[in-house]
Amino acid sequence: MAVDSADAAAKRLVAAGAVIRSAPADAGVGGRGAALADPEGVEFRLWEARRRPGAQLVNQPGAWNFSDLHTADADAAIAFYGLAFGWQIDDIGFGRMIRRPGYGDHLEATIDPGIRARQSEIATLVGFEDAVGWLAPVTPGEAPHWHVTFTVADRDQTVIDAQQLGAQVLGQDDNEWTRSALIRDPQGAEFTASQFAPTGF
């Protein structure tokens, strides 16, 4: 998570119940970072950018799309991350959407000037331009964790490519908005590949 000051943010988060895993330290001239765990034990990192600002391209094939928090205590997670980063969590019936107010403004002013116009054409949810992730319950036997989703141009081709590179495809899903696949890479890391493919619009 991007912060103005890794030291100040780490101090504030510890007061809110987080635990320091790696104290704030410089990463060369790129920036300053720290590793923490939230009250449920889920690890995350802080990044105070200097020469390396972080993700400059998102929601495009091959780039970051969402980070989803799988939690056993949604109320505690909502309270912590809302206080920690000013996030809002909207219960939209089929899921809980994590929003960073102002994120859509940033996208529209930088890499995606047509985001709101494009989303209005397909009747997306109010505030969806600010979405950065989803809150999901853990499954039986699963530990709470953050899970990353990458945008892909073609889910089926991504599945073929991933398997040829030694990955396992753990599942696939098609809904009215996306075609996705849950993939485990050869080192054991799991992620979702998601093709934006709205139907009925």
Description:
The structure is a single chain. This protein is an alpha+beta fold and 201 residues long. Helix content is 23%, strand content 37%. It is built from 5 helices and 11 strands; from the N terminus they run αββββαββααββαβββ. It has helices at residues 6-15, 74-85, 103-109, 115-121, 155-164; strands at residues 19-27, 31-37, 43-49, 64-71, 88-91, 96-99, 131-137, 145-151, 168-174, 178-184, 190-196. The strands form 2 sheets. An 8-stranded mixed β-sheet has the order 5-6-7-4-8-11-10-9, covered by helices on one side. The radius of gyration is 18 Å and the shape is globular.
Write down the secondary-structure element order.
HEEEEHEEHHEEHEEE
Question: Radius of gyration in whole Å, from Cα?
Answer: 18 Å
Helix content: 10-25%
Low-confidence stretches: none
Order of strands side by side in the largest beta sheet? 5-6-7-4-8-11-10-9
Q: Bin the strand percentage.
A: 35-45%
Q: Which class do the helix and strand fractions yield?
A: alpha+beta
Task: Give the number of DSSP strands.
Answer: 11
Largest sheet: 8 strands, mixed
Q: Specify the overall morphology.
A: globular
Number of continuous helical runs: 5
> Termini distance?
34 Å
Mean pLDDT: 93
Question: Which features would summarize this protein structure in a list?
Answer:
eight-stranded mixed beta sheet; 201 residues; three-stranded antiparallel beta sheet
